[in-house]
Amino acid sequence: MSTTLRLLRSHHVRPRKQYGQSFLTEDHIFRKIVAAGDLSPEDTVVEIGSGLGVMTRMLANVAAKIIAVEIDPHLTDILRNDLKDTENVEIVQRDIRTCDLSEFAPRAPTEKIKVMGNIPYNITSEILFHLIKFRNSISDAVLLMQQEVAERLVAEPGTKAYGIPSVIFSMFSDLEIIFPVSNRCFYPKPAVQSAVLRLVFLDTPRFSLKDEAFFRLLVRATFARRRKTLLNNLKVFREYGKNLDETRAILADLGIDGSRRAETLSSKEFANLANALALSDLRGPLS
Q1: What's the CATH code, domain 3-201?
Q2: What is residue 81's predicted lDDT score, i.e. its pLDDT?
Q3: Is the pLDDT of residue 242 over 70?
Q4: Which of 41, 49, 107, 207 is the most exposed, fewest CB within 10 Å of its CB?
Q5: Where does residue 121 fall: left (phi above 0), alpha (psi -120 to 50 degrees), or beta otherwise?
Q6: Tally of CB atoms within 10 A around 214
């Protein structure tokens, strides 16, 4: 019997739908995830969704400090009891989406933390964008997530999976799907497949940005109506639709055909477009 199944039974734990709980049951997968983290004895690791502490124990054996973040109060009590003698583990009962991750960074001798965990499917995007918000405090992350989401993150321009996450995360990180994980490795068994993804956050954006907030706003606006052309989406974005001649001129100067769809633009083209529009008189206030 796997460690997870044994702990589920001994602690009389039933997965709770409100937290999107699906427990990884295969010890060898836990070991592969920990190995993928490439941890050193100086590292501080924030573990998302520590559950029953199976991976927490493994991480504690190789890293300096583990901050185990778990939202479920029942599981938190189990973790505090089972790991009370593990001196380098701190249990935090919080929703990771409300954590100021920069507060954890000063505890790390390297000044940046590593993030690892098994992310609930129902809040994967929220967690990912929360991490990118604190990317200056995070060196890298190794995360088990829904395979479809992982594929969107690494998708190339012109593919069906390419979208807002693809553009934004490629601007701020290097991404790699390390290995797939079958749904048979979980309890309860989910309907979808999973994968382990590594994100290495860049010190600066991949391409120079005049205004990062405006860049994100532009990406979201141009993908808002995916089947529409770039120019059509810009028509309803701030003042650009009221000044089509200038908008067309900006696109022409960049060598971007306004009849293209957002899904065909590379992150570099988005950066160039955001910079050009940000410098124009058409942008208006961000509020």
Answers
A1: 3.40.50.150
A2: 98
A3: no
A4: 41
A5: alpha
A6: 17
Whether the bond between 188 and the residue before it is cis, its omega within 30 degrees of 0, is: yes
Greatest C-alpha distance within the chain: 69
Domain covering 212-279 assigned CATH 1.10.8.100 in the classification: yes
Instruction: Enumerate the domain spans of the chain.
Output: 3-201, 212-279
Question: Residue 188 burial (CB < 10 Å; 0-12/13-18/19+)?
Answer: exposed
Give the count of beta carbons closer than 10 Å to the beta carbon of residue 232.
15
pLDDT tens column, 132-166: 999 999 999 999 999 999 999 999 999 999 999 99
Q: How many helices (H) and strands (E) does the chain have?
A: 11, 9
DSSP line for 64-78: SEEEEE---HHHHHH
User: In 3-state terms, what secondary structure has residue 3?
Assistant: helix
**Token duo for residue 285:** 């206030």
pTM above 0.70, yes or no: yes
| Share above pLDDT 70 across residues of the chain, in percent, rounded to a whole number | 95
End-to-end CA distance of the chain: 55
Q: Are the beta carbons of 30 and 50 closer than 8 angstroms?
A: no
